[in-house]
Amino acid sequence: MAYRARLKEFDDVLDQEVIDLKKLKSLSFHGIPDDQGRRALCWRLLLNYLPTDKSQWPLFLQEKRQLYKQFIDEMVVMPGSQEGNGDVTEGDHPLSINPDSQWQTFFKDNEVLLQIDKDVRRLCPDISFFQQPTEFPCQEIVNSNDVKRLHTRVQRSVLKCANVERKGLGITKIALSIKKANEDYAPMTEGKEAHWEVVERILFLYAKLNPGQGYVQGMNEIIGPIYHAFACDPDITFREHAECDSFFCFTNLMSEIRDFFIKSLDETDHGINKMMSRMLVQLKNSDLDVWLKFQQLELKPQFYSFRWITLLLSQEFPLPDVLRIWDTLFSDESRFDFLIYVCCAMIVILRNKLLNGDFPSNLKLLQNFPPMDVQIILSKAVELSKQKN
Amino acid sequence: MAKKTYDLLFKLLLIGDSGVGKTCILFRFSDDAFTTTFISTIGIDFKIKTVELRGKKIKLQIWDTAGQERFHTITTSYYRGAMGIMLVYDITNEKSFENIVKWLRNIDEHANEDVEKMILGNKCDMSDKRTVSKERGETIAREHGIRFMETSAKANINIDKAFNDLAEAILDKTAGREPGDHVDRVLVDRKQQSNTSRSCCNN
Ligand SMILES: Nc1nc2c(ncn2[C@@H]2O[C@H](COP(=O)(O)OP(=O)(O)OP(=O)(O)O)[C@@H](O)[C@H]2O)c(=O)[nH]1
Ligand SMILES: [Mg+2]
Question: Could you give the C-alpha distances from B176 to B6, B51, B80, B113, B173, in angstroms and in order?
C-alpha cells in the first residue's frame, strides 16, 4: 500500500543513527504522516531544534527542559509569588524613577501580558482544543491559589494599581481593562490549566527573552499549530514536554521570520514588503493576465498577502490543512522562498473568478480563501516553481 | 447593459486600539451577529454592506484595521481613500480612550482633510466595568467637533445608527457638490466601474 510505503520511508530516515536532514526534507516536503507523532518529531528536526545525531538527544533534551524550567521559575513563578506576598512595592515606591525598579518591569510585563492575554483567548476559535485542560500543567503555577497564573496576574495588578498614574516616563496609566469579555474561557479550577494558558506562558517568556521584539500580534498564530502538534503527540515522553519543546521550536522559527513582525525592518531584504513585492513579481511571471487585472483594480498585495506571509498562511486554512502546508514550508531548502509560490498558486487557482471580479469581490475572495483540497494548491505551487521564466 | 446595484459608493475605515471591538462592530453591522471568538486582525480586513438612505442605495466599503502599533504603516496607507472614519475606544479601557487623541493625530497626518469622523465608545453593555464616563467621550468629541456615540456590538446598541449617521454625513457633503463633481469623488474610479459592468454583460 502506498501509505504503508510512505510510513516506511519516513521510518527508514528516522531510524538512522544520524538523521539525513536533506533526505528528511525531501520526504516531508510532500507531507508528513499524522501517525505516531511523526509530524512532531520531524518538525523538531526541520526547525533545527533536535540535533541530527540521535545519540545526543537524551542529554540535549534534558538540558533544554531544565533551562525552560529555569525560565519559568525566574520569570513567572518568582515574580508571581513576590507579588502574592505583596512585596513588589517593598522599598520600591511605584513612583520611583529608578529604571531597575521592580515596578517598572512589572508595569511593562503587564502591558505585554494584556495583549497576549487578549490574543491567546482568541486563538483557533473553531476548535475547542485550546480551551481544554492540559494533562501536564505547570504544578507550581496551578497550585498557587491562582496567584502565579499569568492571566490572573494581569487582572489583579490592574485592580491594585488602578490609581497609579505616571506620565512622561514611558509609563502611562495602566490600561484598565479588567474585564475579559470571554465567558467561553471559564477559568480552570485549582490544579488545572487550559492549553491557552500554556500558550500564553510560552509567548510571555518569548517576549521577556526577546525584549527588542516583545510580543506582536500574530505570533500567537505561529505558536498555535506547533504547540498543537506537539501536545497531541501520542508518545507521552514527548507530549509531556510539549510546552518546552514548542517554545524552543517557536524561537527557532521566529529567528527566521522575525523580520515580518518588526515594523522598522519592513523595507529590508527579509522584511514583509520585500516578500510581498517578490510575490507580485512572481505573479507577473506566472500569470500576466491576473497581474494586469490587479494592476487595473489597484488591488495591492498588502490587502491580502500581508497576512498570508506574516502568518505563514495559518489564518487562511483550517488547522489540519495548516499543518500539512507547514510540512512543506518547513522542508523548503531555502526557507521561506516556497511560500511565495504557494501564495501565487492560491491566486492562480482562482484566476477565472478573479479575472471576472471587481475590486470588492476579488478582495473578499482573497481575504476569505474558499475551502479546497490544499494538495491542489501545493501541487500548483510546485508547478509554478518549476516553470522557466 | 447591466444595472448598477447601487447609486453611491462610500469608503469607511475603522480604527482604534487592539481589542476595543472594531471587528465585532463591523461583524454586527454586516452580519447582524456577535461572537466573542474573533481572532485578532492582522493587517486589514474588508466588508461590504449596502444601505438605503434618502431613496439612494449606498454601498459601504468598510475597512477594518489592526489596532497594534506594528501594523500602523500598512493601515495608515488606507486613510487616504477613506471618506469616513470611525474611531473606536473601549469604555472599560482607559488607555484606549486616551489613545483617541493619538488616532486623531494619525487622521490629520494621513487622511483627506474633509474626511467625516465619528468617535465610538464601545462595550457600553458592560456598565459595571466602565472606567470612561459618557461625559468624557462627549467632551473630547465636542472639542474636536466630531460626532460621538456609545455602542455595544454585543447588545446591538447604536451599531446601525452609527454607520447610518456617518453615511448620512458623507451624503450631505457630497450632495452639496456639483453633480459632475461628486461622481468623481464618490465612485472609486471610472476604470473599475466600467469594468464591473462589462464583466456583468459577459456573464
Ligand atoms: N461586552 C462586550 N464585549 C465586546 C464588545 N465588542 C467586542 N467585545 C469583545 O472584545 C474583544 C475584542 O474584540 P475585537 O472586535 O476582536 O477587537 P478589535 O478592535 O478588532 O481588535 P484588533 O483586531 O486586535 O485590533 C472580543 O473578545 C469581543 O468579544 C461589546 O460591545 N461588548
Ligand atoms: Mg479586529
Answer: 20, 20, 21, 17, 6
Asked whether residue A133 falls in the same domain as residue A271, the answer is: no
Same domain? For A255 and A278 the reply is: no
Q: List the domains of chain B with CATH numbers.
A: 8-176 (3.40.50.300)
Q: Which domain holds residue A249?
A: 55-79+98-259
Whole-Å CA distances, A282 to A246, A346, B173, B183: 33, 12, 43, 36
Give ligand 1 pocket residues (Cβ under 6 A). Answer: A 181-182, 217; B 18-24, 36, 38, 40-41, 66-67, 122-123, 125-126, 152-154
Residue A342 falls inside a structural domain: yes
- φ and ψ at residue A76, rounded to 5 degrees: -120, -55
Same domain? For A224 and A282 the reply is no
Q: Sign of torsion, CA B134 B140 B146 B151?
A: negative
* Smallest CA–CA distance from B9 into chain A, residue: A360
A89 is a domain residue = no
Rounded CA-CA distance A17/A80 in Å is 43
pLDDT tens digits for A340-356?
999 999 999 999 999 99
Q: How far is B128 from chain A (nearest CA, A)?
A: 10
What is this structure's pTM?
0.85
**Residue A341 maps to which CATH number?**
1.10.472.80
- pLDDT class for A108, splitting at 50, 70, 90? confident
Q: Which of A173, A308, A355, A359 to mutate to test the interface with B (most CBs of B within 10 A)?
A: A359
Pocket test for ligand 1, best of B30, B31, B38 (most atoms within 8 A of CB): B38
Distance A185 CA to ligand 1 centre (A): 15
Q: Please state the separation of Cα A357 from the chain's center in Å.
A: 33
**Cell numbers standing for residue A246:** 514548542
Residue A159, domain member (yes or no): yes
Task: Supply the pLDDT for residue B197.
Answer: 40
Give how far A182 is from chain B: nearest CA, Å: 6
Same domain, A276 and A236: no
Q: Beta-carbon neighbour count of residue A93 at 10 Å?
A: 11
**Lowest-pLDDT range of A204-213, B39-48, B93-102, B171-180:** B171-180
A345 and A275 together in one domain = yes
CA of B36 to the centre of ligand 1 (A): 7
The verdict on A354 and A334 lying in the same domain is: yes
HEC sequence for A106-171: HHHHHHHHHHHHHHHCCCCCCCCHHHCECCCCCHHHHCCCCCCCHHHHHHHHHHHCCCCCCCCCCC
pLDDT of residue A270: 84
Query: Which residue's CA is the closest to the ligand 1 atom numbered 10?
Result: B21
Domain count, chain A: 2
Same domain, A143 and A123: yes
- Cβ count near A225 (within 10 Å): 21
**How near does any CA of chain A get to the CA of B146, in Å?**
25
B129/A178 CB distance under 8 A: yes
